[in-house]
């Protein structure tokens, strides 16, 4: 009974988050790290109070394991946020991150020696092709429409700044997203092995990670 409501709330929250994120990034492309820091600060305060009981409750998983998680997580988030400075649009950013399926499958084969069914290989291949097509389409600079009215240079306070397209910047952005994708997949495998060994402790993991 509550499942459709929960799904609707999650979907609506994600959509609203993306809308506001894109609006902020358009005004200030370098604000991604500040947004991430604000989110982590809230999680840290909430976790310190309710999860660790103000430091009185010790973690079940050793702290040295969490240090590795934090390093992976830091690299993933900084790379994803920094990529927005290099002609990477928010829609492409979201589409590209869905390539985690391909990255997870690749590292699962290389590290965990897993084998997948033909259906899974085909599905991931189709998704990857779609991501490549979206990336190539976004690599073309957009053409500014011609205006019939002359631009009033004295009243330009409401116009957003137009960033000059650069193939070099775009290549760096895609490279950062690719690096973040592989690090995210490695993070997922590390978490899987960690939770298999010590058990699942989601609230503790959210706080320390």
From TrEMBL:
Keywords assigned: Membrane, Sugar transport, Transmembrane, Transmembrane helix, Transport
GO molecular function: UDP-N-acetylglucosamine transmembrane transporter activity; UDP-xylose transmembrane transporter activity
Domain of life: Eukaryota
Subcellular location(s) of the protein: Endomembrane system
GO cellular component: endoplasmic reticulum membrane; Golgi membrane
Transmembrane segments annotated in the record for this chain: 5-25, 37-54, 66-84, 90-112, 124-143, 170-190
Primary localization: membrane
Membrane topology of this protein: Multi-pass membrane protein
Keyword Membrane: yes
PANTHER family for this protein: NUCLEOTIDE SUGAR TRANSPORTER SLC35B4 (PTHR10778:SF4), SOLUTE CARRIER FAMILY 35 MEMBER B (PTHR10778)
Recorded family membership: Belongs to the nucleotide-sugar transporter family. SLC35B subfamily.
Name of the protein this chain belongs to: UDP-xylose and UDP-N-acetylglucosamine transporter
Organism for this UniProt entry: Oppiella nova
């Amino acid at each position: 009974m509550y499942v459709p409501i929960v799904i609707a709330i999650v979907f609506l929250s994600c959509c609203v988050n993306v809308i506001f994120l894109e609006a902020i990034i358009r005004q200030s492309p370098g604000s991604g790290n500040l947004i991430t820091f604000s989110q982590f600060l809230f999680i840290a305060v909430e976790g310190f109070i309710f999860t660790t009981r103000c430091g009185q409750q010790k973690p079940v998983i050793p702290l040295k394991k969490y240090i590795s998680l934090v390093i992976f997580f830091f690299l993933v988030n900084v790379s994803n946020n920094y990529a927005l400075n290099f002609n990477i649009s928010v829609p492409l950013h979201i589409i590209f991150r869905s390539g985690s399926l391909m990255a997870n499958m690749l590292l699962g084969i290389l590290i965990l020696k897993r084998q997948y069914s033909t259906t899974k290989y085909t599905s991931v291949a189709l998704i990857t092709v779609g991501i490549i097509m979206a990336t190539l389409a976004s690599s073309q600079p957009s053409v500014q429409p011609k205006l019939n009215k002359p631009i009033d240079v004295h009243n330009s306070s409401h116009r957003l700044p137009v960033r000059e397209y650069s193939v070099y910047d775009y290549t760096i952005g895609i490279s950062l997203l690719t690096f973040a994708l592989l690090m995210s997949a490695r993070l997922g495998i590390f978490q899987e092995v960690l939770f298999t060994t010590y058990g699942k402790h989601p609230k503790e993991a959210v706080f320390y990670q």
